[in-house]
Design a protein that fits this description.
The complex is a heterodimer of chains A (333) and B (339). In chain A, 37% of the residues lie in helices and 19% in strands. With 333 residues, chain A is of the alpha/beta class. Chain B has one domain: Thiamin diphosphate (ThDP)-binding fold, Pyr/PP domains (Rossmann fold, 3-Layer(aba) Sandwich), CATH 3.40.50.970. By secondary structure, chain B is α/β, with parallel strands linked by helices. Classes of the chains: A alpha/beta (333), B alpha/beta (339). Chains A and B meet through helix 3, helix 5 and helix 6 of A and helix 5 and helix 6 of B.
Chain lengths: 333, 339
């Protein structure tokens, strides 16, 4: 099976879907001859021309609104938002238009739009360029929010997302673009809204998504060396959320923690923990814990940045504590 | 290079009338029916048949009908929340619009949207948006789509004085101008954004001049003058349809009532000012012009008034007798299943 980077997998998905369907276009800042800020679309404008690979001004509200209007009138646009930090400039269009149009117009309109954007910290990109904000959109009924954590899922989920008629926030990750993995060639489609068990285990369920999947799997290897057998569940999708896969695991292990790069308070883990204790209360031997980024804007200095981000060591320490019965402490600040 | 059209404020000189008697009769009917409909909506709101927000087009009838009439069947119309007249001018059945205001399942949006979120897919009326300026970026997309699919479709995008100050106006105007999209940005200037006069909200009051910043030709017309509006919009539409790009038409008009039904509209305006504008009433002006030209008669006007009364009365009855949406439809159309 071919090995591709996450970036190459996304590019392959875009190319295949654009070859397959003339209604698919890509628009965003620097997607053309620059090849995309993270080089996802490199080579595409040469292949498809600037009619289909459209460089836009710096105008996120305009970009997303354009995507919505085009989606309502016969096209299947993919809008690239350079990073999720900039999504905020145009979030009104996504939340108040894209997510509402099909419902408030009683099904008389559809918005088959994919908004692709990388989330998460890079290296020293500092406070305004390092955020993890997809949970804000996962909160909103009427749109999907999906986040592949591997190159294979990046390709399969992007192809599926482009063919889906719902408005979808497709969350990539800044530091995942260079990661390699096996990616099936050709018509590789991964359904949205389905979690997957990445590592089977019996002592504790670690639920996570996106870049933290790899970090958590590394932590699971270290924990195995200490005699703790962790099961790792990759959500892959925040909305629709596959809670059944999570619950099935918790019923087996009786302990669960959510690992996320974003902030703990009001984060994705808050939702997962709430659902686990609602629906599998009697299967729990320990409170559901949340292992998350420290609750500060992500600072520039390398040591501060590292300290504020969940690490293999940090996860191992917390999970070990869980298994030893150490109760979690309140969120700070 | 985009050529700047000569920018003149129309001074009330009458353009030659090229419409047939039938077209004029229809235009008159639409304006009269819209006024009746809006007056009835006001009444029904005070009777709690209509709830929430209800923004009326009373006084804007020429500005509305003159702009919508030139649009063809395959053109797209994007509007904002003061839109009852817009969708009625497009031809949507008044009964279905009233039913939507009543929140009934027979409404144009099945009772999901209400006054601010009207929609008619068949007539390419794409809504109905409540966030000021939130509709304008959609016009970038519809324009882009029309061009991409190699059609001669034009987008009529309604906007208004208050919205020229919000960020989405600038992003939209820039992208529409940059890409030379087939969009007519129709700027309804009714002198007030809610309770704030244009001069208190905008650094310049010649709002049409804002288009200069985006290389988009623009003009201001007398929005109380049906023919001035229609001529400007015919030309703007034609310009876009032949591939010469967008334009902005600022239409100077007035709403006799307040911002919404809940606002009396008197705390920020004088009775004298309202009266001044009433003396330029769009329906009255239209009637005078077509009478003098011998194209329609008082009988024609009266017939239209009777027809409008009947249609609006039937609309209210239809709405009143329609059921609310079934509770088990609460989750319908939230997502498209298995696409």
């Amino acid at each position: 099976m071919p090995e591709l980077t996450y970036r190459e997998a996304l590019r392959e998905a875009l190319r295949e879907e654009m070859q397959r369907d003339d209604r698919v276009i890509l628009m965003g800042e620097e997607v053309g001859s620059f090849g995309g800020s993270y080089k996802v679309s490199q080579g595409l404008v040469e292949e498809f021309g600037d009619r289909r690979i459209i460089d836009t001004p710096i105008a996120e509200e305009g970009i997303i609104g354009a995507g919505i209007g085009a989606a309502m009138t016969g096209l299947r646009p993919v809008c690239e938002i350079m990073t999720i930090n900039f999504l905020l400039v145009g979030i009104d269009q996504l939340v108040n238009n894209a997510a509402k149009i099909p419902y408030m117009f009683n099904g008389h309109a559809r918005v088959p739009l994919v908004v692709r954007t990388p989330s998460g910290a890079g290296h020293q990109l500092s406070c305004q360029h390092s955020q993890v904000l997809e949970v804000w959109c996962a909160y909103v009924p009427g749109m999907y929010v999906v986040a592949p954590g591997t190159p294979a899922d990046a390709k399969g989920m992007l192809k599926t997302a482009i063919r889906d008629d719902n408005p979808i926030l497709f969350v990539e990750n800044v530091l995942l673009y260079n990661e390699s993995g096996e990616v099936p060639a050709g018509e590789h489609l991964v359904p949205l809204g389905q979690a997957v068990v990445r590592r089977k285990g019996s002592d504790v369920t670690l639920v996570t998504y996106s870049r933290m999947v790899g970090v958590t799997l590394q932590a699971a290897e270290r924990l195995a060396g200490d005699g703790i057998d962790a099961e790792v569940v990759d959500l892959r999708s925040l909305r629709p959320l596959d809670i059944e896969t999570v619950l099935g695991s918790v019923r087996k292990t009786n302990r669960a923690a959510f690992v996320e790069e974003g902030w703990r308070s009001y984060g994705v883990g808050a939702e997962i923990a709430a659902q686990i204790q609602e629906l599998a209360f009697d299967d729990l031997d320990h409170p559901v814990e949340r292992i998350a980024g420290k609750e500060v804007p992500l600072p520039y200095a390398t040591n501060l940045e590292a300290a504020a981000t969940p690490s293999v060591d940090g996860i191992v320490e917390r999970v070990t504590g869980m298994v030893e019965g150490r109760r979690p402490v309140a969120a700070s600040a | 290079m985009v050529q700047q059209a000569e920018k003149t404020a129309t001074k009330g000189g009458r353009p030659r009338i090229h419409e047939s008697a039938d077209e004029l009769r229809h235009a008159h009917y639409l304006m009269v029916m819209i006024r009746r409909f809006e007056e009835k909506a006001f009444e029904m709101y005070t009777r709690a048949k209509i709830g929430g927000y209800c923004h009326l087009n009373i006084g804007e009838e020429a500005a509305v009908v003159g702009a919508v009439m030139p649009m063809r069947e395959n053109d797209w119309i994007i509007s904002y929340y003061r839109e009852h007249g817009h969708i009625l001018a497009r031809g949507t059945e008044p009964a279905a619009v009233m039913a939507e205001l009543y929140g009934r399942e027979t409404g144009v949006a099945g009772g999901r949207g209400g006054s601010m979120h009207l929609f008619d897919a068949e007539r390419r009326f794409l809504g109905g948006y409540g966030i000021v300026g939130g509709q304008m970026p959609l016009a970038i997309g519809t324009g882009l789509s029309s061009k991409y699919r190699q059609t001669d479709e034009v987008t009529l995008c309604f906007t208004a004085d208050g919205a020229t100050n919000i960020g989405s106006f600038h992003e939209s105007m820039n992208m529409i101008g940059l890409w030379k999209l087939p969009v007519v940005m129709y700027l309804v200037n009714n002198q007030y954004g809610m309770g704030t006069a244009v001069a208190r909200a905008s650094a310049i009051t010649d709002l049409w001049r804002k288009a200069d910043g985006y290389g988009i030709p623009s003009e201001r017309v007398d929005g109380m003058d049906f023919f001035a509006v229609k001529r400007a919009m015919e030309q703007a539409r034609e310009r876009a349809a032949r591939g010469d790009g967008p334009s902005l038409v600022e239409s100077n008009t007035y709403r006799y009532r307040g911002h919404s039904v809940a606002d009396a509209g008197r705390s920020y305006r004088t009775a004298e000012e309202i009266q001044e504008w009433r003396e330029r009433d769009p329906i009255g002006q239209f009637e005078k012009v077509v009478l003098e030209a011998g194209l329609l008669s008082e009988d024609d006007f009266h017939e239209n008034e009777l027809a409008a009364d009947r249609v609006v009365g039937e609309a209210v009855e239809f709405a009143d007798q329609s059921p609310q949406p079934a509770l088990d439809t609460l989750y319908e159309h939230l997502y498209v299943a298995d696409s």
